[in-house]
Specification:
Elements: H1 4-11, H2 20-34, H3 36-43, E1 55-64, E2 69-79, E3 82-88, H4 97-106, E4 111-116, E5 129-132, H5 133-139, H6 144-156, H7 169-194, H8 200-209, E6 224-226, E7 236-245, E8 251-259, H9 261-267, E9 275-276, E10 283-291, H10 299-317, H11 341-370, E11 380-382, E12 387-389, E13 399-404, E14 410-416, H12 420-429, E15 441-442, E16 445-449, H13 460-471
Amino acid sequence: MNEFLPRLYRLCQSASRLPREDFLTLCLGRQIERDAALTASLFRPLGIAPSAPVRVRAQVRAWVEAGASLVVADLVIEADEGVVVLEAKVGPAVPSEGQLQRLAAAFPGARILSLVEASATARVPPGAAVLSWDDVLRGLSPGPDGDELRELLRSSGVGDTRIGLPEDLWARARRLHERYEAALRPRLQTCLVALCPQPLADAVEAALDDPDRQVEPSEGWGPGFASTRPLPRTGVKGLCLSVDLGEDEELVWKLEVLAGRALAKALARSGSPWRRVPSTERWFVLELHRSPGGRNLRGEDLKQVVAIGRAALRHAHSGVLGRAWDVRGPGMAPSAPRLSVSELVRGLSAWAPLEAALSGCVAEVLHRVFGPLEGGRAPYRWTRDARLSRKGLLPGGQRLRAWVEPDLRTLAFALEPPSAPQAERFLQALASWPLPGPVLGWEGGLRVELSAETWAHPGLVPAIVALLGEILDRPAPEA
């Protein structure tokens, strides 16, 4: 793929859309040329066994019926044994029957291969061989050769991102998370209180102790709170302080702010160091400090976080609401816990892919329960902490809210509002739950408690889909 870098560069120029499908397909094409094991696994359903390296072209234009219409193939893979035209889709979408027919007419003699999500394979029209992104993840070579694309697919939420992760990852991440909870989280909470002068500190401390107002950061580990009203004489409705992964074994300290309307406009201005948190309207994040790896945390790290965080909040408020963030008060940082930066980085390195994989499971469940929507839209919309099913998919205005608990021990599917018949159907269906591990729970919805044995079980998503189908008294779409 000699045109790989120019095509990649052109994909990055679109300000109006995120060309995820084109981007991932282009990277897949490059990997096919370099990874013989992946190529063999993709060609196997076609009855082709390439004996030499293949040649790949991306976004190939061809005319149908001598110039009658133009068709674009995502990838054209040329082997000595034959030519394969690959049409890829991400999310719930599948290629149309007409699209497959035009590709076949534009590339006579080529085999047509559709690449879609596993939940969409049954909906691909006849006339093409079908593979899923799960097959790609399974076919990637182990080690560095396949890790780059594997990580890209995981970060993009494509395929079952549990594939290829270590079997002991859940247990390892839980152990490291418990260490963080016991040692660092209380210090982070104290730092968050120290960012605020009196009497705001008292209000923040009370909010952090209130389970109804507690929130988790969008990036990394840390405590936080959110409220419907801003803190007195400020534009701040919520705060989160977190640690996240950085490059070269660094620990990155971040501050997230839920801003009122006026403050949000200031934080969103061009040139502002604050970055809007994805899938939110008024949450913004700012990097405060970095702790290099290979050493223990120091008191100076926490002092820097408090000092920089206070200065950032003061600067953000200047000129907003006619007053500045009041920085009077001690702002005393706590002592540093006896933790090494490397230990925290290892914990986050295990926790981040686990969280992404389980979040992908939740999204896949909703896709399978509700099926595709017109225009290829997802059957849910994002909130800060959960996916909420779109209106009209369940009778009576009922919605299904789905999320992964922050400690990664539970997958939750809450019905809003719940009904007594649904609770009864849950109890009746519980006897047929096929997976090992903890017993399921019901608190106005389905709660699937995870264990080291169940988190990576290949039947996890189908089992949840089947049970939700019984609870909702509706057959799940064929997967």
